Structures are given as structure tokens and as C-alpha cells.
Amino acid sequence: DLEFPAVSQKVKFSKDGKFFMATGLHPPQVKVYELADLCMKFERTFTAEIVDFQVLSEDYSKMAFICMDRSVNFHAKFGAYHKIRTPRFDLLALGFSPEMYRINLEQGRFMSPVVSKSQAINCCGISPIHGLMATGGEDGLLECWDPRSRESIGELDIAGGAAITAVRFDDETGMNLAAGNKEGIVQLFDIRSSKPMITKDHMNGVRIVDIKFHAVGMKDLGSRKVVSTDTRSAKIWDTATGNNFTVTPPHLSPLAKIWDTATGNNFTLRLSERCGLLRRQGRDLAYCPETCDLFVVGSSPEMYRINLEQ
């Protein structure tokens, strides 16, 4: 069940850590898996390709999907609940345009757009600690926003004109911000300074697609880690020194995303038919899940199951 007819695209865990969601093609569809039973719970198809999605509840009962036809689809436990169409290619505010639209989920309507100084916005990140939002522009402009204001509270050209493709606040203090660009460079900032603390080059020359801060299981390692992923590899490195902790082997490329949650489940999604599960340096990076099983997929049709306790 852990595969799609053509390609897998996006993966997420539910906030309670009990469910795993993946989208793919063809047809456009989402599959939800229950980790306790190690099986697929259900799948749903769409009329347009899914660009991204967000889990709105603790489990899978409320989800929002943005699709290629500029529609936002809201799903509940029983299935599709409501569908709206955005005036531009934006969700929660942003797409390939300078405007950021806000959809009020309680009122079910669009709020007035906020305009960025960048010519187009590629990505955004929101801090769960203080609520600030950061956006990365196509022209390399990093902007920070206070949701209570319609103007950016600060901007910085960090990429020298190279498009910013991923931004992320750390979820422990909210004081660190990481941004990656299309040339494969990740910069780690203290939001109180305009100079980066660490500049990490992936040395692949391809865009950064995702960044995560990792704290689970790090108490004895002396420092938190950053998980940065480009389209060819994922690197886990130290926030204090920038030294690599581990790197995914090249034969796993191309990578689309690496996902890491507080449950200790680490998934690596490749632009292929299958979603692979990566457990590298696992006992140092995270606590083992209750099942203590490792699933390995390759070019063959078999999926191998390894019990980590044995």
C-alpha cells in the first residue's frame, strides 16, 4: 500500500503521531496510514494535482489541500467537506506572486491581501513560539512579518539574487531562523542579527526543498541539529559548528523531502513510485517507535521488514 502508480509527492505526520499522510499521482490522491496497525486507513482522489496540504487537527479528521486548479479543498473524517477557489495561486497567503492572501477559516472568506517587497514569494515559515512569519522571495529577499501588522518588520537580501526556496524557525526558542536557496546553500540566523551564524553549502548546486530543526534524542549530543534537504541528498548537521552529523547516501537521490517528528519516525520521500523509510543513525537522532520495525524498499517489488529489537 505504501506506493503510488506514478509518483509520490508530499508526506506529513498527524500531530498526535498516530497517522501518516502521503500524496501522489496518478490520479491525484491522498493516502492515510495508521501506524499502530501498519496499514492504509483510506485513500481519496482529487480532480487536480495536489500542490501541498496541511493537517488542521490532532489526527487526520481535518485537512486542507491546495491544488493546481487554484482550489483549496477542506476534508473531514467522512471525506470532502468544502472547496473554495483562490484569486491567485495562494494558500494561507502565498504563492508565486507578491501578494499574501489570508483565508479566515472561521468566517470562510478572504481577508485583505498583504503585499511583499519581493517580486514573488516561494516559501514561508511561522514560529510556534512568538508567531512571527518569515517569507522567502524569488529575488533572494528574506522578510519577517508580525501578523498584527500589514507591513514587514524587517527584510534582508541573504542570497545575492538567488531564489529562497525554504525557510524554518526553530520550534524550541523561536530565536533561530534557517533559510535555503536554489543554489543549495542554507544560512542559519539569530533573528536579532543580520549576519548568519552558520552558512552550510550542500555542495550539490541544487535547490533546498525543506529544513527541519531536530531535538528528539539530542540531550547527550551537546547540540541540536538541522535537517536540510535538497533534491539529491539530505544532510543532518550541528547548529553550533555546522559539522555534518550524517548524510544520506547518494544512491537514494533524488530526494523530495525528509520528515522528522517527535515520535521518532523519519521518512525520506523520493521522486519515485515509493515512499522510503530512512533510519540512519536512528538511535542517536530519535527514540525508536513502539513497533521497532524498519521497512526497506528498493527497485524490486518486495518490501523488507526488519525488527530493530532483534
Task: Tell me what you see in this structure.
The protein is mainly β and 310 residues long. The protein contains one helix and 29 strands. The strands form nine sheets. A four-stranded antiparallel β-sheet has the order 1-2-3-4, with no helix packed on it. It has a four-stranded antiparallel β-sheet with strand order 5-6-7-8, with no helix packed on it. The two termini are 25 Å apart.
Strand element count = 29
Element order, helices and strands? EEEEEEEEEEEEEEEEEEEEEEEEEEEHEE
Helix tally equals 1
The average pLDDT score comes to: 76
Estimate percent helicity: under 10%
The amount of beta strand, in percent, is: over 45%
Shape: globular
Low-confidence stretches: 218-222, 253-283, 286-292
Structural class determined from secondary elements: mainly beta
Largest pleated sheet: 4 strands, antiparallel
Whole-number radius of gyration?
A: 19 Å
The main sheet orders its strands as 1-2-3-4
Gap between N and C termini, in Å?
25 Å
Short description:
By secondary structure, the chain is an all-beta fold. The protein contains 1 helix and 29 strands.
